[in-house]
Amino acid sequence: MAIRIYKRTTAGRRNASVNLYSEVTKKSPEKSLLVAKPKKGGRNHHGKITTQCRGGGAKKRYRKIDFRRRDKDGIEATVIGIEYDPNRSSNIALLEYADGEKRYILAPIGLKDGDRLVASEEGAEPKVGNSMPISKIPTGLLIHSVELVRGKGAQICRSAGSYARLSNREGRWATLVLPSGEIRQVPVEARATIGQVGNTDHNRVVLGKAGRARHLGKRPKTRGVARNHHDHPMGGGDGKSKGNRPPASKTGVLAKGGRTRKHGKNSNKRILRRRVSKRYGQLKLK
């Protein structure tokens, strides 16, 4: 991927950059795989705002992605093109199967037009884009679109540049090492796709101005200490006072190093080592 940094011709261009999407080879989406995506504005079915600072943005349609690839076992597919997807950070690849059906999958690094892919329960050649059970994948390879439950579809390692390294297998569990430092176990019968998700420069793009954020549906954010006491836990008081409490969200979730994972969750026992906090990681090691 490539990033173009604008010259400082105006205040909006200063420090701004744009993704050139050099991997993209197909400009228009497949109409048969598009569905309408109505805007919610951060509101639930009662009309109440449940997610702050969302609304507006450019109109877009959802691309149906095949995260399972189980009902196409053994059928060879050809990559028609790599496309941009406005609904996710990664690019997507359009596949045409031998029976004539077309489907979208996440585009890993190194996937090109004309490549032939296959998904198989019995295992296949361990090349980029092929999907198979983790029990059939050689250890040490990078994988993405990993299932946590057999047959449920990919749940982790789906964003741009993400991957998991298959460390080892023992019995009915396989150990994965994630980029965050977390080490967790998944069933060996669960499926994964070979390779690392593409569009790795996605996090390097700097919007540069508020207008580009509004096109993405991001509305302005008001600081918690600038709100009233009944609008935010850190609001109220005279001047810039946060009430002698650590920074938190509107719902009280800690913003710096606080755990957000639900206690007693069934999959907690499959996490062998939790990720290290980026902010306080060095302090914990000392």
TrEMBL record:
Gene3D superfamilies for the chain: 2.30.30.30, Nucleic acid-binding proteins, Ribosomal protein L2, domain 3
Stored InterPro entries: NA-bd_OB-fold, Rib_uL2_dom2, Ribosomal_uL2, Ribosomal_uL2_bac/org-type, Ribosomal_uL2_C, Ribosomal_uL2_dom3, Ribosomal_uL2_RNA-bd_dom, Translation_prot_SH3-like_sf
TM spans (from-to): none
Region feature (Disordered): 213-286
Signal peptide per UniProt: none
Any single Gene Ontology cellular-component annotation: large ribosomal subunit
GO MF, one example: transferase activity
Domain of life: Bacteria
Keyword set, alphabetical order: Ribonucleoprotein, Ribosomal protein, RNA-binding, rRNA-binding
Pfam assignment, any one: Ribosomal_L2_N
GO terms for biological process, alphabetical: cytoplasmic translation
Keyword Ubl conjugation part of the UniProt annotation: no
Free-text function comment from the UniProt entry: One of the primary rRNA binding proteins. Required for association of the 30S and 50S subunits to form the 70S ribosome, for tRNA binding and peptide bond formation. It has been suggested to have peptidyltransferase activity; this is somewhat controversial. Makes several contacts with the 16S rRNA in the 70S ribosome.
Entry's family note: Belongs to the universal ribosomal protein uL2 family.
Subunit structure of this chain's protein: Part of the 50S ribosomal subunit. Forms a bridge to the 30S subunit in the 70S ribosome.
Protein's UniProt name: Large ribosomal subunit protein uL2
Originating organism: Mucisphaera calidilacus
